[in-house]
Fold:
Amino acid sequence: MTVQDNVAEHHASAAFHHRQAAQFHREASRHYEIGKDFAHAAHQALIAHGHALRAIDHGNQAGKYYAGQDGSLLQKYPEPVPLAPAKAVEAAETDLSGSQHHAAAADEHEQAAEHHAQAAKRLDEKDYELAAHEAQMAHRHAHYSIFHDDEAAMHHVEHYGKSGQSAEIA
Structure:
């Protein structure tokens, strides 16, 4: 197996986990919209978060390939990824409900999955510059999804969380 094959596998795994995270975020969003089973919604969100972390890990592993090159792959498309979402995004999107944050996280995961799929395709075509760019875009969407994931979790705690060992979600 070549390094390039290994990178393509990481892209494929990242895309898979992003799609799984999107699915579970959509389920959590539906549970919040129905408004009855908040504990199950929180469980779905937790599973989504686990898939998100796996997706980011695979994306980071793939990204090491592009960062390890002579630098020319990343010169054409400068790094577009802030470590956290831009302040404008945070300010504009902190007023969303838990359901809306889960839906937004799902959308971001779906976009990240698509960029990973495109990165793998470009890698197979030996268009390394575009593959690197697609990997960067996937990384950006992954970070936005985590932002919405975190916001949904904070919304849940503020509106439905109770303290204590035997606390249940109302």
In short: Residues 77-89, 163-170 have pLDDT under 50 and may be disordered. The radius of gyration is 17 Å. Residues 3-160 form one domain. Helices lie at 3-34, 38-67, 72-75, 87-93, 98-124, 128-160.
